[in-house]
Write a structure and sequence with these properties.
This protein folds into two domains: 62-91 and 340-438, Aspartate Aminotransferase, domain 1; 103-338, Aspartate Aminotransferase, domain 2 (3-Layer(aba) Sandwich). Helix content is 41%, strand content 14%. The protein has 15 helices and 14 strands. The chain is globular and about 60 Å long. Residues 1-11 have low confidence and may be disordered.
Length: 446
Amino acid sequence: MNYQSSFDRLKQKMNAGSIEPAAPTENRSVPNVPVPVQPAFYDFALFPEYKEFTTMEWFYEKQNYTKNQFLKHAGASDATVELDGRRVINFSSYNYLALANDPRVKAAAKRAIDDCGTSTGSGRSITGEVSVHQEFEREIADLLGTEDAVVSVGGYSTNAFAIGYVCRPQDMIIYDELIHNSALSGCKIAGSRRFSFPHNDYEALEKLLVEHRHKYERVLILVEGVYSMDGDIPDVPRIIEIKNRHNALLMVDEAHSMGIIGPNGLGVTDYFNISGKEIDILYGSMSKAFGTCGGYVAGSKPLIAMLKNYAPGVLLYGAAPTPANTAAGLETLRIMRAEPERARQVQANAAYFIAKAKSVGLNTYNSKDSGVVPIMLRDSELALWMSIQLFDRRICTFPMLYPIVPRDKSRLRFFINTNHTKEQIDYTIDCLVENLRVAPRSKGVM
């Protein structure tokens, strides 16, 4: 940016009278007496967020519950994991394909460290570009059928900042009410007018477009490939038809769909047998099936060029993805393509889990064809109690409570792994049923 020319333009506006120079301030003495401020505004211990945390701690202590959060684990997190010395069946890891500990993936990460070090030392536009970045981008774009792609350092940040850059205050964003928090953060960054539509209600989506599309410039529709709380898949072809009719843009969050759904496990394009070019923005997190960290966006060449050169938090003003993480993601991508049976086993395990659960009267809600399976429970207190009881029986799954989900939609969430066995699933379902038989009635503590 030419700062001198910007200053010159400012002076020209002032000379032309379009900007009034600031009036001189009077030399007044200001008494050096601070205005009283309530401690609740500067003492972290009095912040309501901390009070909420201490209430939960009190609840655990009062109920004599085993603390199952922030426990260090040994070894890799797979279908089982060792937590504080106890081996548990692990339904709380989204390492769906068990590739985070694959010898080929680890070797690729180690080679990248040997070749490039643990960091590139700067952003990619300066001296931080390494060949593995470009290789990953070429191969993910080829897999998805898009013109180009960009890989970035964080999954959450990639989603948020891509949305925040593409959309502006004069634009509109319409999102499914169950969209991920990272997308909501992106909406706030953008400052666009925002509307949510009821989950998978495409008539409501179209109605919003009919009523409001003409009032705004760019319009972006946000959905997920697999919804991370419910485990269901939206009707992407129908959404494409709707967005085309209204000249809107569509962004699909593939955090929990890429690597898992579809006959080859390659996400929504594979599941619906469509080209990636039919979706304007395909976003993916590399902390799920990829077994590493980072995020990517795939789409048209103009989109990727803008994100690479101008989008804060995607590449601009941010560190380059580490060589090790990117190399691990690239190797995982190649294994995904070569070994689709891994994803098929996730799908088979999830289908078996759902069938067993339904056969004993458990509610798996809308989950279908994905690796996310909820078990719906009557309230938050029961969900929390159940997670503790299961942990004591060496099963690790966590409760999803308000405000993460609606108050009447409390649940346990199970991430299904390619290495889970039928015996592990049978044992888990049996434990769920046994604990529900003796579960205390809720007392309204939470």
